[in-house]
Amino acid sequence: MTGMIDRRYRQKILTCIKIITIFLVMTAVIAPFYVSVIYALKDSSDISVNRLAWPQHPTINNFVKVITENEQFITGYKNSILTTIPAVLILMTATSMAAYVLARFNGRFYRSVYMIFVSGILIPIQCIMLPLYLNFFRLGLTNSNLGFVIARTGLQIPISILVVTGFVKTVPLDLEEAARIDGCNRFTMFWKIVFPLMKPVNATQLVLNTLFIWNDYTTAVILLRKVESRTLLLAQMAYFNEYTSELNLAFAFFILAMLPILILYFCMQKYVVSGIMMGAVKG
């Protein structure tokens, strides 16, 4: 009897610990969004008073000012779209084909190529900042959307190869053997049999690569020096200088920049988790 009471008591304690842990994690995740929203809805005079309190007179004028008065906002949006979409499409196509070959062939050469691709994850961007800039400068690809697309596509290949190759290994070989009996070559088998089955992992690629490229700061600040070539994240720096910082406008800018990513994630959410889990099974 005493043992049962002790067991129930321990279960209650563990349940309380889990609830408290979940609450703390949720608070840590939600807090930045809360701060962003309240600052974006405050005017300049309200920021210095009760910084974390809900604004006394919420206003959307900050969003209007960002869209109508900041010329870099429209330019940044255009450049971010023109660089993110091509890079994501190139990654989805190229890494899917490469991952299929690396997953289906187990020779030493293919294993070596796979390890070379994946080892790119271990190289910090700080180690290649100088050669990256010098090489792109000599090729005339700095301050251009093309240069940024090439750089970001190359930097995203390792993680994409890792996730997609693991997913392809879960695709049954019986489907390809049946297609081969029907007269399909390997190219046709990939595009008509395997690629449609890669919908979950490609949705994961779409969301993750869009997130990383859209929010890229380091590569952008290295390659995109001119105002007209800046992406959205660099355009936000217009609200910070040596003497002043317009936090209300900066946070309004941040929320407007974040909206496309949030919309994309909520639309693709049901595929993202399954793609990551299945890609991790045999990675």
From TrEMBL:
The chain crosses the membrane at residues 20-41, 81-102, 114-134, 146-168, 249-268. PROSITE patterns: ABC_TM1. Belongs to the binding-protein-dependent transport system permease family. Residues 77-268 form the ABC transmembrane type-1 domain. The lineage of its organism: Bacteria, Bacillati, Bacillota, Clostridia, Lachnospirales. One of its GO terms (biological process) is transmembrane transport. Signal peptide: none annotated. This is ABC transmembrane type-1 domain-containing protein. Its main location: membrane. Keywords: Cell membrane, Membrane, Transmembrane, Transmembrane helix, Transport. One of its GO terms (cellular component) is plasma membrane. It is found in: Cell membrane. It holds the Pfam family BPD_transp_1. InterPro entries: MetI-like, MetI-like_sf. Coiled coil: none annotated. It is a multi-pass membrane protein.
